[in-house]
Amino acid sequence: MARARPTIADVAAHAGVSKGLVSFALNNRPGVAPQTRERILAIAEELGWQPSVRARSLSVARSFALGLVITRDPEIITSDPFYPSFIAGVERELSPAGQALVLSVVSNEREELASYRKLVADGRIDGAFITDLRHDDLRLGLVQELGLPAVTLGRPESRPGVSSIPAVAMEDAAGIEEAVDHLAGLGHRRIAHVAGPARMLHGSHRRQAFDTAMRRAGLEPDLVIETDFKAADGARATRHLLAGPDRPTAIVYANDPMAIAGLGVAQHAGLNVPGDLSITGFDGTDIGEHVYPALSTIVADPVRWGSAAARVLLRMIAGDPTEDVDLPPARFVRRKSSGPAPRTP
Amino acid sequence: MARARPTIADVAAHAGVSKGLVSFALNNRPGVAPQTRERILAIAEELGWQPSVRARSLSVARSFALGLVITRDPEIITSDPFYPSFIAGVERELSPAGQALVLSVVSNEREELASYRKLVADGRIDGAFITDLRHDDLRLGLVQELGLPAVTLGRPESRPGVSSIPAVAMEDAAGIEEAVDHLAGLGHRRIAHVAGPARMLHGSHRRQAFDTAMRRAGLEPDLVIETDFKAADGARATRHLLAGPDRPTAIVYANDPMAIAGLGVAQHAGLNVPGDLSITGFDGTDIGEHVYPALSTIVADPVRWGSAAARVLLRMIAGDPTEDVDLPPARFVRRKSSGPAPRTP
After folding, report:
1. Which residue of A has its CA nearest to B232?
2. Do A303 and B74 touch (CB under 8 A)?
3. pLDDT of A215-272, one tens digit each?
4. Residues of A with CB below 8 A from B52's CB?
5. pLDDT 10s digits, A122-136
6. A293: which chain B residues are within 8 Å (Cβ-Cβ)?
7. Burial code of B80-114, b = ≥16 C-beta within 10 A, e = fewer?
8. CATH assignment of the domain containing A9
9. Interface test with A, best of B102, B105, B106, B317 (most A CBs within 10 A)
10. CA A56 to chain centre
11. Is residue A158 located within the same domain as residue A80?
12. Residue B119 is part of a domain; what is its CATH number?
């Protein structure tokens, strides 16, 4: 088992004083004569005594860890490019700050609330990241009830009495508008949207942005299919759209995996991308750059989002003032999968 | 801040006894009269007293959390399909067991060792997963020195005195042999391997498997390029191979992202896959099924690997006997990206 670290008892034995006195001296409490205190600190240093985070966390009620509860079907987690990048960004801040990340993956909203309660009751975390905000999100009230510092990714829809939760937001919907403007500018008239789940705020924001941009271009946003973000959903939606009577000439997807799957379906059907069908993604994943044709997409920056959210949460826990943070908006990056609309036959 | 949970002091005050007696009663230690114990338990229950995991972990030196230290460039983490799936598998076991996962992402081996030391010194974890085993892996000696229960993914090369670390292994190299056999059987003679890092055991095992299968088929395994698993590395290696004088007719990649990037490079160069070039991946990712042509690949099962490793580690921490676990071997799945070798011109 682990080699024993010097304890307060060891320091006491070496100093020839009581453990209580050592504890008082090390914790800088009153009632210890200055010379005694000096001598105890010198012996503690000599023995290599260090405060245990676990013991310290018990006394100051801090766990030096932040929590991330991810509520998604494991099947989606494994193909969702957002979380690994977001976590890489979070770790960039936590590691130097001596903080750990406690991760919990649950499959539904009931388990999610229970998970937050348990993490707090067990004193495991000092704060939490709230991702994938939903309409009427129960987590906002819960973290307030639990007194748990928290930061949201994106702004909640309404925050009745929830003014103490800072948001780290990225204007991702603007990227969808850019994509639609780009396609409309290339002459596309039948543009479809393969959307994320409407119960998630970012899913419905992106859909609203699609509607707004379409209407502004004088087009009807009537080709919209809601999905659960899975690549297989993207493939299915694409097959459905391509089989329909008013086949779109362009499809705006709510994430890269679905767009790549859509590209595969189109090519399998013998269509040329972008000659017959233009395709845009959302995420700016690595692999999107390397498929053929390279994916036009909307580049968010989940690594940066993770770092920014971690910094806000650490400041909040330290008791420093925090405010909402606006990251640079997601931006549309044109690559090779989007081009001029095919001439009408 | 958090609403106060009833403490031992509250129970003591209500029962009119000392805190020490309450603690003895709640911890079921001898020296408490049965009636007194009953009364204290009843009051504790009435007040809703619950043992704090943090306090409990301090007294029994357990943290009820397992650690995963990932040592990779953040850039690779974000595109590596292994970890999200592995973590989903781990969480499947931890969540019902009331355990948390503490995650740490570091960028080099020096930080890695420091991270293990700190997680143990801070009493944050009861056990650790050792992934991406390397030659002369310093972590094996370290976890023994620290007395930290650990499980390795795959079998270490040699385990001098390291008999107490169980391994959860999957014969992944066998999948590479199957892929080479498949390609050689289709008439391919110039088969290249875009390999993972040789310093990682699984990287060199897969390369050895490639050599073995090639030699068995009477072919020279001389077209091998080592990479760092990144999609961009896969693209670069493919461009290099296709530009060379003895252009391969088939390429066996060490992961799916590199194979998908290689597919993109080949198609960009105007090659037909699999008519001119056959391509196989490794992972069995979701997206590999949806690209065009669908990727022939070697299906490992990281979710299952995660669950199995978590179960072994939990048993080990509970003091139950453990032994090495052999998962079903990774298997080659033929899809559409591999086919007969082109006729020699």
Report:
1. A290
2. yes
3. 999 999 999 999 999 999 999 999 999 998 889 999 999 999 999 999 999 999 999 9
4. 121-123
5. 888 999 999 999 988
6. 268
7. bbbbbbbbbbbbbbbbeeebbbbbbbbbeeebbbe
8. 1.10.260.40
9. B105
10. 29
11. yes
12. 3.40.50.2300
